[in-house]
Amino acid sequence: MAINVVLPHLAASVALRRYAPGLATALLLNAPVCTWILYAGVRSQTMSPGRLVVATVIAVPVLLGMIPLLFKTGAVIQRKISDRA
Could you give the residue ranges of the DSSP H alpha helices within the chain? Predict the structure, then answer.
């Protein structure tokens, strides 16, 4: 999730020179929470570099795989809202 702050939200805003959806949440929520979790995990020695790599290798494909599902869900919701109007 820490990478998610920079890619795609911050990078999209810089490249497009305008606000990208999710940027505020990424900067104000994800960045501080992820930083605190990483800091606390390393400090308490419950998070090692190896565990972090394994977690990243698992989480990245799962999150990337969810993107199409989220777009489809959004389209279904949008269609239902449009049908009501």
Answer: 2-4, 11-16, 23-25, 31-43, 49-84
Residue 13: the pLDDT is 87
Q: What is the mean pLDDT of residues 27-46?
A: 89
b/e per residue, 10-31, with b = 16+ CB within 10 A? beebeeeeeebebbeebeeebb
pTM exceeds 0.90 for this model: no
Contact 1, 30 (CB under 8 A): yes
How far is Cα 47 from Cα 45, in angstroms, rounded to an integer?
5
Q: Retrieve residue 47's tokens.
A: 């998070």
Round to whole Å and give the CA distance between 36 and 16.
30
